């Protein structure tokens, strides 16, 4: 690989630290030799191991090796563990690390690796010791040992040593290395200079202060925190600790590991600076990850009612910002609504006077009312947190069932029964409290995603949820800066060459795509972070909906027609979904006021539609489709618009099955119960035309549509227009004679 601008080959430096090795020997303290060999192309380096114990925790510098001048044609690090016990056959165990997995540069990767007995067919290169043992046929394995190792790995661009020379003359070399935002130079300073890690600059800031105040590089912060001599409670001239600065300025949502290291090193979460601010006060003002930090602090002993020099508590600031999420969590941890600041204002009085009549003020009162009520009936603290988090205000509780509580995370049966028993006694239900939103049903609006503003900076998003792993990367929740009531999902792509290409292609498709109500809305991209900004659907997926509540024919037709409209919209723009299933159909729920009766209205949102338009290998698409895959996909034949229609047929079957039997069923579950394995079912979908059994009570016109959608030959399946016409006819039939259709439900229920 070469640098596109200069044509020069990029050279790399690789650093590997062996931090832990487990299950190395069958018996402790045997005579002989043991070592690890690390190989890249023809270069090899060795780390010797003491045979005294089965499990070892090597210390620097003996556990550390570095390779320099590695060009980008090298793709793999081969690892060998050699166990040469005296008078016994030699044993070699091997593993591999892909160099691309260490991207991006200047980051730390903790890798746990299980080593396998040597197999020459799996090795890209072998050490000289290994070749000798193979030649002499010395390798034997009888003891069942499976060594496991933990490595800290770093990938740097190889550079001239000018920076190291400059730092050697610096009065505060470690702080200067941090200011250069160079993890390599930070490690170099810690290993080569005797200056204290707690050395201060003219403002009293240490390297840890500097790392927290200037950069989002958690790798540098973690490297400093991993040093046992670091003082995390040292104060600068303004009496700020490094944790104050971390809570103020850190922007990366991957903050929990660094925060936990602060705690491990004894950080005081209630330390006061010169303005009497605690880290909690500073976290409230963090524009990017305030909710993540506030929750971490409160969970770990931060006192919620500390007042600043001006008398402000964290709750005062949450009210000033009109942040319901902050308000909720602070109240849950005991924030006092009646503490006055130096102007005599309490959080409650600010809300009543400044925001009177607003949705924020009403929500403030609802949360207070809910917490007070739940504490009065003796609800478990965990239940209170879950109900507040889900905004289950008091006037909504009468309809809450044990199943809904379970879906929210209240899993104890006794707690569920106690809550539901009390909820049924609630009399003061005020329908005027319901939010009157009247969404249009089944109305597709078309509009371009604006290219202006499509590429955003990370500063325009505030992260509010924890990072969660998904296919190809991670997701987390956030709010957009220009409208702090808009919650979004940030989907990042892991930095492999394939995933970066996937992100780039996704962006190209989405920026030219028209939008409609039935597609998940996209707000733009964070280009540097390789992340998409997407609409947040807080009611889960169609799978979640079918698992947790009863549905009738009216909702079956409504959802099915919405899905067909959205698929049709995609197909008209030349995009096939390719992985249409209930978990990829998200749900938005709103309430409408219909003659003073409040009904739930559900809007579907197709998700992941662009992701699978991008040349992902057919085997991966087949695997992700599972039992929703059309026969032609299983047979590795051409994917077409009729493949999406087959998948829709499976979804329609799930809707009908749930409506008639009031049971959620995965596709082909009736065969799984008969002990057929998924691979057998997939094989029989093609070979024996196996399909889900249509419930016998299904009305004839709908049953025929189900059969047609899942026919084996793609060209024999109906078109989207034909499907919609049939569904509309079925809906009309139902409206004219609902008792006849409802009887199909009663047939099985009785």
Automatic annotation (TrEMBL):
Keywords: ANK repeat. InterPro entries: Ankyrin_rpt, Ankyrin_rpt-contain_sf, Kinase-like_dom_sf, Prot_kinase_dom, Ser-Thr/Tyr_kinase_cat_dom. It comes from the Eukaryota. Gene3D superfamilies: Ankyrin repeat-containing domain (1.25.40.20), Phosphorylase Kinase, domain 1 (3.30.200.20), Transferase(Phosphotransferase) domain 1 (1.10.510.10). ANK repeats lie at residues 203-237, 238-274, 275-309, 310-342. One of its GO terms (molecular function) is ATP binding. The keyword Cell inner membrane does not apply. Pfam families: Ank_2, PK_Tyr_Ser-Thr. Residues 461-728 form the Protein kinase domain. This is Ankyrin repeat protein. It comes from Entamoeba histolytica. The lineage of its organism: Eukaryota, Amoebozoa, Evosea, Archamoebae, Mastigamoebida.
């Amino acid at each position: 690989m070469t640098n596109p601008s200069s044509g020069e080959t990029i050279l790399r430096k690789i650093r590997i630290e062996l931090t832990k090795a487990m299950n190395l020997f069958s018996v402790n303290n045997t005579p002989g030799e043991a070592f690890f060999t690390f190989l890249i192309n023809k270069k090899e380096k060795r780390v010797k191991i003491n045979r005294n114990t089965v499990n070892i925790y090597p210390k620097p510098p003996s556990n550390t090796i570095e390779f320099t001048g590695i060009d980008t044609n090298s793709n793999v690090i081969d690892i060998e563990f050699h166990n040469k016990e005296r008078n016994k056959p030699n044993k070699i165990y091997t593993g591999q690390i892909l160099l691309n997995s260490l991207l991006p540069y200047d980051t730390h990767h903790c890798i746990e690796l299980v080593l396998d007995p040597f197999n020459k067919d799996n090795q890209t290169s072998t050490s000289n010791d290994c070749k000798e043992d193979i030649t002499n046929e010395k390798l034997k394995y009888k003891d069942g040992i499976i060594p496991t190792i933990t490595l800290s790995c770093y990938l740097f661009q190889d550079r001239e040593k000018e920076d190291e020379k400059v730092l050697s003359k610096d009065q505060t070399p470690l702080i200067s290395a941090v200011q250069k935002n160079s993890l390599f130079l930070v490690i170099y300073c810690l290993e080569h200079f005797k200056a204290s890690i707690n050395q201060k600059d003219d403002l009293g800031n240490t390297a840890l202060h500097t790392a927290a105040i200037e950069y989002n590089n958690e790798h540098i912060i973690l490297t400093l925190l991993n040093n046992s001599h670091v003082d995390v409670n040292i104060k600068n001239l303004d009496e700020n600790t490094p944790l104050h600065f971390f809570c103020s300025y850190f922007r990366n949502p991957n903050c929990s590991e660094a925060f936990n290291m602060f705690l491990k090193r004894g950080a005081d979460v209630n330390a006061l600076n010169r303005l009497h601010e605690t880290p909690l006060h500073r976290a409230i003002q963090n524009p990017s990850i305030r909710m993540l930090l506030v929750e971490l602090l409160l969970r770990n002993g931060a006192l919620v009612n500390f007042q600043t020099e001006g008398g402000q508590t964290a709750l005062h600031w949450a009210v000033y910002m009109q942040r319901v999420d902050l308000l909720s969590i602070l109240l849950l941890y005991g924030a006092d609504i009646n503490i006055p600041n130096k102007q005599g204002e309490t959080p409650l009085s600010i809300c009543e006077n400044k925001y009177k009549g607003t949705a924020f003020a009403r929500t403030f009162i609802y949360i207070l009312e809910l917490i007070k009520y739940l504490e009065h009936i003796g609800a478990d603290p965990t239940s209170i947190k879950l109900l507040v988090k889900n905004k289950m205000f008091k006037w909504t509780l009468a309809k809450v069932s044990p199943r809904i509580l379970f879906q929210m995370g209240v899993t104890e049966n006794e707690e569920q029964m106690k809550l539901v028993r009390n909820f049924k006694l609630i009399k003061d239900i005020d329908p005027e409290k319901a939010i009157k939103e009247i969404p249009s049903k089944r109305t597709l609006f078309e509009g371009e995603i604006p290219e202006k503003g499509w590429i955003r900076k990370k500063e325009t998003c505030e992260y509010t949820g924890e990072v969660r792993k998904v296919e190809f990367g991670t997701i987390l929740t956030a709010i957009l800066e220009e409208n702090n009531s808009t919650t979004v999902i940030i989907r990042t792509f892991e930095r492999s060459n394939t995933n970066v290409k996937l992100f780039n292609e996704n962006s190209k498709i989405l920026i030219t795509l028209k939008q409609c109500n039935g597609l998940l809305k996209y707000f733009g991209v964070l280009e540097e972070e390789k992340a998409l900004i997407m609409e947040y659907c807080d009611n889960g997926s169609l799978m979640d909906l079918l698992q947790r509540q009863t549905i009738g024919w009216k909702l079956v037709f409504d959802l099915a027609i919405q899905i067909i409209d959205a698929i049709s919209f995609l197909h008209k723009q030349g995009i096939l979904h390719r992985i249409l299933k209930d978990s990829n159909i998200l749900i938005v729920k709103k309430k409408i006021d219909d003659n003073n009766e409040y009904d739930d209205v559900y809007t579907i949102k197709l998700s992941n539609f662009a992701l699978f338009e991008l040349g992902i290998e057919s085997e991966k698409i087949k695997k992700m489709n599972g039992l929703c895959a059309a026969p032609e996909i299983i047979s590795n034949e051409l994917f077409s618009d009729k493949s999406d229609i087959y998948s829709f047929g499976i979804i329609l079957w799930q809707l009908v099955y749930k409506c008639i039997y009031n049971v959620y069923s995965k596709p082909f579950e009736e065969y799984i119960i008969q002990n057929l394995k998924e691979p057998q079912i997939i094989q029989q979908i093609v070979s024996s035309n196996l399909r889900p059994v249509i419930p016998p009570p299904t009305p004839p016109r709908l049953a025929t549509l189900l059969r047609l959608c899942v026919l084996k030959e793609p060209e024999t399946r109906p078109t989207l227009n034909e499907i919609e016409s049939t569904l509309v006819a079925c809906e009309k039939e139902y409206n004219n004679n609902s008792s006849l259709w409802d009887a199909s439900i009663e047939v099985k229920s009785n």
